Amino acid sequence: MIRQATSRRALALILLTSLALSACAGGASPKPSAAGASASPGDSPSPGAGSPLPEPSDLVVGLGYVPSVQFAQFYLADQRGYYRDAGLTIEFQNRIDPDLIRLVGQGAIDVALADGTSLIPAVSQGIPVRYIATIYAKFPSIVFAKSSAGIADAGDLAGKKLGTPFRGGSGWIMLQALLQSVGLTTDDLTIVEYPAFGQLAGVEQGAVDAATGFVNNEPVRLARAGGDPVVLRVDDVVPLPGNGLIAGEQTLAAKPEAIRAFVDATLRAMDEIIADPQVGLDAALAAVPELASDRENQLAVLEATIDTWQSPLTAARGLGAIDPAAWATSIGFMAGLPGDLVPNLVTVDALVSTAFLPR
To answer: pTM of the full predicted structure?
Structure first.
């Protein structure tokens, strides 16, 4: 267990990045053009693995709101020249999740890292985007508590006070899935909202018994402060889709080789960081020098992030693997939630494409 103190600046960066991951997509975008509607992302030719592109291709890449160690794979691929060697010129932009999905649908951003549970409502509302590679193979939103709270599983949440930023987003969806698995609803808990995202402090101070958060954020911070966190995950209940790479249908039709090359280079960097997390930390510190004031904390966050990249599915099929059956289950679950979260029928084929993964 890591018990060293964290710097306020580093914690703020971690928290803000995690907030970007939790946002729920909103707003409709213009309908796809004829090109976007008629071209199938799976129909374009595939270059050989690692083949350089015949001409340089510019890609605008959207990441979460705050530059962070959680984006180490993108920084490493850029710094080691993997994108350049594939004929790509990359521009990173940092934005919140709903904006990323909307801008990707409009073609203003070519490819982005976005929350899968935000994508389902967005596509249901007509935003023409596809999920093309899994990054978070384990769903990162979790419920956490101190071990002293007596919460060992979802059933123990009955009658407890639970903190959450707001009644929406990936954390709220995850919480409902956990509770449904044991025959509970949010009405069986006392929900305490923390609009300023101070639910960790609520747990530490005993104002709430548990809270929603991210596996690579609050539990790491709680452990470093000397706590003994208990983490409840949703993966064995409902296979909710974690954050992954998305691209607009028009972009996939216009730049298929560039998108494939970007996915290949990013997954290569992820493999290297899994093998040696220090190279990922070094890449993040080079990209975001202010993180160097708390290297040990940043490494702890990165190690927790690396764990989310891997699952039995990625062990069998490789990093980036997409499970269409799991997406179908997720669509069914989210469509059944209150609040008309998925207002229109949406299919797996309209949401994901496996055509851009390594062969």
So the answer is: 0.84
